[in-house]
Each structure stands twice: as structure tokens, then as C-alpha cells.
Amino acid sequence: MKPRRAPPSEYLAGSLLLAHPSLRDENFRRSVVLLSSHDQEGAVGVVLNRPLGLPLSDVDPVFALGPLSKVPVFSGGPVHPEQLLLCAWRILPDEGGFRLHFGLDPSKAEELMAAHDLHFRAFLGYSGWSAGQLEKELEHHTWVVTGIPGDLGSYRPGEGLWRELLAGIDHEWKLLADEPDDPSAN
Which of 17, 50, 103, 177 is geometrically suited to a Cys-Cys bond with 166, CB 3.0 to 4.6 A? Predict the structure, then answer.
């Protein structure tokens, strides 16, 4: 999976943004962002690798007894961190694609729960970019854009996801992913 740089006319919805190893902003340091939308008005996504270690039932008692009670909760990003988003996705290997259900209504999420091969997550907050902001960040090499691997659901959900995806691009990215925060501690 080679990273790609997005020209301004290319929309990246359905792609992953991997934080460049030099990015130190705590909101996105070593993050993996799944972009659900991207167009001339901006972009929206959720951080996939910031698990809160809580099931949905612990975050909102409305879900305590329902089928969504055990859905894991993640920090989705710095925008509206109190807002709960329900998401599900499925890899479509025969079609070479990915189907994302973003911002699901709880009743629709329960309905989809009966479907097979869907990965469910709840997110507190999301990541957002205004018009042209993501394109500027891409020009400054803040992000590495990559496709969604067919085995995304099998990766560890924490910082290991960032390392594994970045290392999977090529040997040079693997070296950068494994680089310690403090090189003097090497």
C-alpha cells in the first residue's frame, strides 16, 4: 500500500490519514483517521486508534440493556468531544471496497447489528477540516494518505494500528514508525 499525495481536485472520503511521524499535535499525534467525507467544503472523519477502554453502556446508560451495550467507545477527535457518533463498516473484498455507515441513528445501528461482518464503534467527537485546510496539511506532508486494508478489523486498536499501517507501506516508513520519541533514549 503506497501512500498517495492528494492533488486539490481529488477527494479522499473512504481513505485513511496516517499522521506523519513528525506530527506532535496531541490531537493527532500517531493517529489514524478514517475520512467519511471530503469535498470542496472540507472533510470529516474519526480517529480509529484512540480507544477509551469503555463499552457504550458505560458512556450512555440509554444503551445499557440493548444490543449496542458492548460496542467499544473511542475518542473520535477534538471537534465536539461530547457528541456521540455510532459507526459501522464492512470490507467488501469481492468489490474491492469498503462500506461505511457513519453517524448512525441508534435504531438503525441496532438493525445493522444483525448483519454479519460489520465492525461497530462509538466515537466521542470527530475530526474536521474546513474548506482547503486538509489540502494545505497534505501539501505540508502532515498526513500520509492510504487505502483501507481488507483486514482493518483485525488490527490492534491503539497506537499499534498507526505503527502497523505505516510500517506496511514500505521499509522507510517502518523505520520512521519505530523511531522513539526521544532519539537520545535509543
Answer: 177
Q: Rounded CA gap, 37 and 96, in Å? A: 19
Q: In 3D, which of 185, 184, 137, 143 has the Cα closest to residue 165? A: 143
* Cell numbers describing residue 130: 474546513
Give pLDDT tens digits for 64-105: 998 999 999 999 999 999 999 999 988 787 776 778 899 999
In angstroms, the CA 70 to CA 95 distance is 30
What count of other Cβ atoms lies within 10 Å of the Cβ of residue 40? 10
Domains and CATH numbers, the chain: 16-185 (3.40.1740.10)
Cα diameter, the chain:
52
Question: Distance between CA 90 and CA 173 in Å, rounded?
Answer: 27
3-state secondary structure of 72: strand
* Report for 91-95, 126-130, 175-179: range of highest mean pLDDT: 126-130
